[in-house]
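testing teh design pipeline on a random one, pls ignore if ur not involved
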């Protein structure tokens, strides 16, 4: 039985670009190595492993929740529209869970949010979130 590997996407605060993991095989020190890397479309070649990205202040790592909006993965930082209201997906250490931030109130995923749709994220479409938070 195989399981899909869910890796985070990364917001580059300098280039203002979302980076997604890509499988890459390369020779490092004469040894064939395969790993997931994050590659910028604006700076080439700029390949960075997840372990490197996690330690760089210019990158915001957005972890996958494991949930989907139809076929689209839902990530931390996504703006979602529920039946009545919209919110942002956040991780809370105190709950050890992803929650939905609605007007600074953290709520759990519930049946009311079962049909939620991703309408953007806080980095690429912040205005759709600000309209709800002022």
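output:
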């Amino acid at each position: 039985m195989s399981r899909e590997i869910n890796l985070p996407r990364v917001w580059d605060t300098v280039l203002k670009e979302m980076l997604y993991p890509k499988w890459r095989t390369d020779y490092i020190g004469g040894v064939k190595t395969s790993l997931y890397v994050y590659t910028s479309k604006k700076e080439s070649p700029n390949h960075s492993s997840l372990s490197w990205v996690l330690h760089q202040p210019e990158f915001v790592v957005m972890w996958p929740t494991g949930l989907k909006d139809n076929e689209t993965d839902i990530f931390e930082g996504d703006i979602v529209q529920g039946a009545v209201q919209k919110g942002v997906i956040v991780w809370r250490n105190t709950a050890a869970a992803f929650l939905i931030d609605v007007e600074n109130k953290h709520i759990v995923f519930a049946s009311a949010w079962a049909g939620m749709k991703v309408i953007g994220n806080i980095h690429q479409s912040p205005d759709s979130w600000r309209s709800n938070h002022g």
